[in-house]
């Protein structure tokens, strides 16, 4: 087991961020969420994992994730783990955190909501964690996260 | 409690002490002469959607306080027609007045307006979402007729599924620990999210198919209109409609203090013969919009505290 673990299926990086334990179906979406320039990125999906049956991993060199990227990841892969890497070692590891407020990243499902008719930022607040329920700050309607399109 | 500069957007934003203070201020408005309180102030009335009663009662309330009003009642003649954003319309019109009341078809429009404006915004109805001044005048009417708000037995009947007035009223009454009875055909019963909220707040409620089941038990019956459009066909509507018509004969054995309320306009859910009973409060209720709106205008402009 230990030997198998040491041998990395996705190549190591010297410094940067690893997003681990991504549900396989969400891996491509997480990749899509990341605002990437010329960073070195390695990606694996459907890798076997102890914690979950299969998982995806994304490793990005020389990048710290921004708050808006983290918030989006929380929505599509709430199970994911974030690791900060320095000198090839994990120096910090934490679960993705569900924020209390999502600003400017979700489209309201209510066709009569003012946010669908004016050029403006949307805002949702987390009203329930499990399962996730989000309330539109404007029309006051509450939705499942799957009803809300990521912008 | 500080009301000066406060926006009145949603009953869900208000605390119980704030609601009580507004109702107490409204009571004072009925008693004393307040003709000069808002002298020199201007109320802007921005009605992006037709309304008669809300607009007229706000204008009347403002005039009784000595204020003047500017505004429009039909957006087709305004700059909105030329494609101006709501944000810009508010940014411009707030320069002309000290407080704005707005009615707009889109849900959340009042919240957006409040973010744009530095003068207080009062929501006069944002589509099917909120109409807080209606809820406040409903509460004021109940308090006035029953002498209190706490611990009453309140029934709501009619279209409970789509009616925004009963949603807001149910939420507001839950602050006062009232026992509520919901009377509606199954297809028009209270939405689950409202019932869940009542559960969370430990409020006792029950669902009923007929007015007769609870009419003798309650202190307040709040009747609402059932709209034909909600039914798949005329026959279904006719069947349900007749069950929900309140007739004088149904009032046998009711409590002496019963108050019958209705947000108006009624079509036929309360027969005219009920108007002559001591229980009918719906026209008083409409009149109570004046002191409640006077109180709100005076409070948010800071001419009283
Ligand atoms: N230097 C590194 N470069 C890239 N990825 C790394 C590095 N070190 C660890 N990882 C990856 O970060 C993740 C977290 O590592 P580890 O602490 O071993 O987690 P776990 O206990 O979840 O297996 C693993 O998927 C591992 O492959
Ligand atoms: Zn919305």
* CATH third-level topology of the largest domain in chain A: Alpha-Beta Plaits
The CATH architecture of the largest domain in chain B would be: 3-Layer(aba) Sandwich
Give me the strand/helix succession of chain A. Answer: HEHEEHEEEEEEEE
Order of helices and strands of chain B: HEHEHEHEHEHEHEEHEHH
**Distance separating the two termini of chain B:** 8 Å
- Radius of gyration of CA atoms of chain B, rounded to a whole number: 20 Å
Please count the beta strands of chain B (DSSP E, at least 2 residues each): 9
Short account of what is shown:
The complex is a heterodimer of chains A (151) and B (305). Chain A has helices at residues 2-6, 24-33, 67-76; strands at residues 16-22, 41-48, 54-61, 81-86, 89-95, 101-103, 106-107, 123-128, 133-136, 142-144, 149-150.
What do these coordinates show?
- The complex is a heterodimer of chains A (151) and B (305).
- Chain A is α+β, with helices and mostly antiparallel strands and 151 residues long.
- Chain A has two domains: 15-95, Alpha-Beta Plaits; 101-150, Aspartate carbamoyltransferase regulatory subunit, C-terminal domain (SH3 type barrels, Roll).
- Chain A has helices spanning 2-6, 24-33, 67-76, and strands at residues 16-22, 41-48, 54-61, 81-86, 89-95, 101-103, 106-107, 123-128, 133-136, 142-144, 149-150.
- In chain A, the strands form three sheets. Chain A has a five-stranded antiparallel sheet.
- In chain A, β4 and β5 (89-95) form a beta hairpin.
- The longest helix of chain A is centred in the first third of the chain and has 10 residues, at 24-33.
- With 305 residues, chain B is an alpha/beta fold.
- Chain B folds into two domains: 11-130 and 288-300, Rossmann fold; 132-286, Rossmann fold (3-Layer(aba) Sandwich).
- Chain B has helices at residues 16-31, 53-64, 86-93, 109-116, 132-146, 164-173, 192-200, 234-243, 282-287, 289-300, and strands at 42-47, 68-72, 99-104, 121-126, 153-157, 179-183, 205-208, 220-223, 259-261.
- In chain B, strands 7-6-5-8-9 form a five-stranded parallel sheet. Chain B has a four-stranded parallel sheet with strand order 2-1-3-4, sandwiched between helices.
- In chain B, β3 (99-104), α4 and β4 (121-126) form a beta-alpha-beta unit.
- Chain B is globular.
- Chain B starts with 15 loop residues before the first helix and ends in a 5-residue tail after the last helix.
- The site of zinc ion has 8 residues of chain A, from loops.
């Amino acid at each position: 087991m230990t030997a198998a673990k040491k041998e990395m299926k996705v190549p190591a990086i010297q410094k940067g961020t690893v997003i681990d334990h991504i549900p396989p179906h969400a891996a491509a979406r997480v990749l899509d969420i990341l605002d990437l320039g010329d960073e070195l990125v390695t990606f694996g999906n459907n890798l076997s994992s102890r914690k979950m049956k299969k998982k995806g991993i994304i490793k990005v060199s020389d990048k710290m994730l921004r708050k808006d990227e983290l918030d989006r990841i929380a929505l599509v892969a709430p199970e994911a783990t974030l690791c900060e890497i320095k000198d090839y070692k994990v120096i910090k590891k934490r679960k993705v955190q569900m924020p209390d407020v999502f600003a400017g990243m979700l489209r309201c499902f209510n066709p009569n909501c003012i946010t669908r008719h004016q050029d403006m930022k949307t805002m949702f607040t987390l009203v329930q964690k499990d399962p996730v329920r989000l309330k539109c700050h404007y029309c006051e309607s509450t939705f499942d996260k799957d009803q809300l399109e990521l912008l | 409690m500080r009301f000066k500069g406060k926006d009145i957007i949603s009953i869900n934003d208000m605390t119980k002490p704030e609601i009580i203070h507004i109702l107490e201020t409204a009571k004072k408005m009925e008693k004393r002469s307040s003709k000069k309180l808002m002298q020199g102030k201007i109320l802007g009335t921005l009605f992006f959607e037709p309304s008669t009663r809300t607009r007229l009662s706000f204008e009347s309330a403002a005039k009784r306080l000595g204020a003047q009003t500017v505004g429009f009642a039909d957006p087709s003649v305004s700059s909105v027609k030329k494609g101006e954003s709501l944000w810009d319309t508010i940014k411009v019109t707030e320069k002309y007045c000290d407080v704005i009341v707005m009615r707009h078809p889109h849900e959340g429009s009042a919240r957006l307006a409040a973010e744009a404006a530095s003068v207080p915004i009062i929501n006069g109805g944002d589509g099917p979402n909120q109409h807080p001044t209606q809820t406040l005048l409903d509460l004021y009417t109940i308090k006035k007729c029953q002498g209190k708000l706490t611990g009453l037995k309140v029934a709501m009947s009619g279209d409970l599924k789509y009616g925004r007035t009963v949603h807001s009223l149910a939420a507001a009454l839950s602050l006062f620990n009232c026992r509520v009875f919901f009377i509606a055909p199954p297809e028009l019963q209270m939405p689950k999210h409202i019932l869940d909220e009542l559960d969370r707040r430990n409020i006792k409620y029950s669902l009923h198919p007929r007015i007769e089941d609870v009419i003798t038990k309650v202190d307040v019956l709040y009747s609402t209109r059932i709209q034909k459009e909600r039914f798949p066909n005329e026959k279904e509507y006719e069947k349900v409609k007749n069950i929900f018509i309140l007739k004088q004969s149904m009032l046998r054995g009711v409590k002496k203090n019963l108050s019958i309320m209705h947000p108006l306009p009624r079509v036929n859910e309360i027969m005219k013969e009920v108007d002559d009973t001591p229980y009918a409060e719906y026209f008083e209720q409409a009149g109570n919009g004046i002191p409640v709106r006077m109180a709100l205008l005076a409070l948010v402009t800071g001419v009283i505290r």
